[in-house]
Design brief:
By secondary structure, the chain is of the alpha+beta class. The chain contains 13 helices and 9 strands. It starts with a helix and ends with a helix. The structure holds phenylalanine.
Length: 337
Amino acid sequence: MKEKLLEIKKEALGQISSPDADLEQIRIKYLGKKGELTAVLRGMGALSAEERPVVGQLANEVRASIEEAIAARGAELREKELAEQLCREKIDVTMPGNAPKMGHIHPLTKVQRELENIFIGMGFSIVEGPEVEYDYYNFQALNIPPNHPARDTQDTFYITDNILLRSQTSPVQVRAMEKIKPPIRIISPGRVYRSDAMDATHSPLFHQLEGLVVDKGITMGDLKGMLETFAKSLFGDSTRLRFRPHHFPFTEPSAEVDVSCFVCGGKGCRLCKGEGWMEILGAGMVHPFVLSNCGIDPEVYSGFAFGLGIERITMTRYRIDDIRHLYDNDTRFLEQF
Ligand code: PHE
């Protein structure tokens, strides 16, 4: 029986130390109720009175050493597994990451912000107005009564007879003058709408930036000086301006304003189509009717206004030949800016 016990011990310890040991299985096999050690102990009744305590003690020792070995091996296996898991789950924080796709400022937004910054630097503040506008603000208050021919060139989308999508940012001038009293020095960038078919230079939706200055003693000289400062900051110090007489119903006198071509300096090149000049905005002295429509006395105050197309400036600046590129949202195009 002693030999049997020692054999069980040897066999059990051998199995416990094997690399793929299933410890629970081994415990059941040797120490369980129907296990081998238990079977040996059951047979102890047949032993003599002297042998029994000796074998009993040995059996206890065998059980203890198997239990110990199982516990020790269990701890060892758990530790090994933890080490493997830690190794598997290790994160190398120095590895290059998966860079997220970054968004990109749209060229129109970029130019709009640049324009805003130039004007803020000259003391203007930014005012916004509604895109869905009353006929009164978009036309009538700006000296464009019903049936005025200017309505043809600024045909827009009507919501009712009275309410429309604004065709220009000029209605913001009127809203501003109704609210704030001179001195006024504002710009108002925003979307405008016209019933134009889409082609390389037209879009039914585009962006303008309007400017308005009203105070005592404002003259055309102030307008020219301010626009010159503006054009030099936008297109470079050697930029010159050219004023061509024009007509806008809400300014008198009015002018269309050109800048000398920033590529050829005025000699004529492909960008300026041989002209040497590029038209960038419309401007003029606020019409006395418009001032009095807004409750400002034209005998006391005068002012100038100007309006420019943000698309046109952007296209000139970056030599974009088709306005549709600005709305297609093709990232291959947009990423160039
Ligand atoms: N609103 C005019 C247009 O859209 C531009 C402009 C604004 C002209 C202010 C003069 C003064 O054509």
